[in-house]
Each structure stands twice: as structure tokens, then as C-alpha cells.
Amino acid sequence: MVFRILVADDQDDCRQAIVQTLHRPGFEVLTAADGSQALRLLLQTTFDLTVLDVHMPSLTGIQILGHLKSAGVIVPSILMTGNPSTAIETAALELGAITMLRKPVPTEILRITVEQIISNRH
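The chain above was modelled as a monomer; its predicted structure follows.
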């Protein structure tokens, strides 16, 4: 079984670091450089997990979650932000995000979070 993950972040270095962290056998990691591209991929392909930056051009991570909810698409999501706030976290959780992580996300925290999500899905 392949576990398909979408990583959406407008910062190339951050996006690539996450891909490297998640790269392992059994994982297929796709990327998007902005919110519109991420939403298109999420509506066209089935994903087991998304890792979304909150602040991206065209659509924010919060807006993506809103569109997915409206379309009836359910996918576990981790949101990341360098500027956390209670309002953003509340909105994300209300729209179905599993958790919010502060950028830069430590590699081990991301790895543990993803593994917990995988465990819960099985």
C-alpha cells in the first residue's frame, strides 16, 4: 500500500525539506507551490494526508480546507505557520485540520506527527 501525501508550501526550501523528511518506502509525496495548485491536486487525486502552509499565494491553507469541506473531500491535514494565532488555529481545527505546527517545523516533530496519523488510519 502506498501512502500518498501532498505538501503545499510556497517556500521552495521548506517544501523540499518536508519532502526529504517524509521520503521513505511506501510514501508517495507530491508537492504544490501555491494554494490553487494544491486545491486542484486535492480535487483530482486521492491523498491520505496533506501538509499545508497557512500563508500561500492564491489560497491559504485555511481556504483550501474550506473548499475541501464544501466539496465533501475528507483528507487528514496538518497545517503549518510561522505566525500562529488562536484565531488561525481555531479556524483550522473547525475545518478539520488534525493539528497545527509552528514553522520551521522540527524534522522529528513532523515525522512523529505523520506516523501518529498513519497509525490512527490503520
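DSSP finds five helices and five strands in the chain.
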